[in-house]
Structure formats: C-alpha cells, structure tokens
Amino acid sequence: MPQILIIAGDATEDLEFFYPYQRLLEEGYEPRIAALSRKKLQFVVHDFVDNFDTYVEREGHSWPSDLALSEVDPADYAALVLPGGRAPEYLRNDADFRRVVTHFFDADKPVAHLCHAALSLAPLGVLKGRRTSAYPACAPDVELGGGTFVDGAAVVDGKVVSARAWNDHPEWMRAFLEVLREHAPVK
Q1: pTM above 0.85, yes or no
Q2: What family is reported (predicted)?
Q3: Which of its termini does the chain have fewer beta carbons within 10 Å around, N or C?
Q4: pLDDT of 48 over the 90 cut
C-alpha cells in the first residue's frame, strides 16, 4: 500500500485536510500526517458571510500528526498532499518543510495542492514554469513564484494537481487520483 504524505499544521483548513485524507483511505492508500512536531493539530473552517469582504475563520476539528517534518524521509512516500488554510504561511518558513516539499518536485512525484498551499510553494521556486490554481487571492504569489495562475477546479501540470479551495474537491481529487493510479498504483 503506497504511503501518501499530507503536510498539515495548526490552522489548516478542516475540509481541505479531511476530504483528501478520507478519499486516499478509500482508494487503498496509506496517508501519513506530518507537522512541525508530533502533536494534536487544531484545524479551522473558512466560511463566507453576507456583507463581509473576505472569509471568516472558525474553529474546526482537531487531528493528531503521525510524525514531525524533521522525521520525514520523503523517499518513503509515493506522493504529497498540501491542504490550504493559514498553515502554509508559517510552514514555508521551516527548513524541513522546504526539504521535504522540494524532494517531491525534484523527484517528479505526484503532488496535490489547493487554496493557500501555493503560498508555501512559491518561495521554493517549484512553481516556475508551471500552470497552477490556488485561492484567487494567491494569484500574485503564484506569479511572483514564476508560475502561471489558472482560475480552475482541477489544474493538472504533469504530476501536479491544484485547485482553488474546498468547493473544488470532487474535480481536484478525481484528477489527482488519476495521476496516482498511473504513477503510484495500489497493488
């Protein structure tokens, strides 16, 4: 059973963690959760309210990480999933996060990211020359990172599959699972 690494942190978007986690389990993959440390993570829910210019944040579910990023040998994993929320803005500052994520891009392994995860990818240079989706407010970050922003529900660029936010889950995970079945099939 191929292991899939999901990197999360406190303030990861609740739905953007649980949907891919559960879909990967359903498909026979073994998702493993890495964070800055082994701990119980507190997720958040982003929602929209009338007459508010941006989203609001509410407390979501909690979930334990399986291992710290410093413990991750990325060679042990067939693919990577990066959910959004506020976590990407601080995860990108961690040296082990950068080490692990760049391994997946350098090794041309499947990667799925959505929403604000692009904030953590742009400074690493891994979006250069790529077409990628993200939460529309992150378009400048994608472009500053050398990528081409695409406002789409399931943007596939090689083995990288991206989307705007949790409402794109069906298209995003359908496309990512097609990539996984081709490049990291469950035996």
Answers
A1: yes
A2: Belongs to the peptidase C56 family.
A3: C
A4: no
Question: How confident is the model over 4-19, as pLDDT tens digits?
Answer: 999 999 999 999 999 9
Q: List the catalytic residue out of 46, 113, 116, 169.
A: 116
Active site residue 113: no
- pLDDT for the residue numbered 35: 98
Task: Please state the domain extents for the chain.
Answer: 3-183
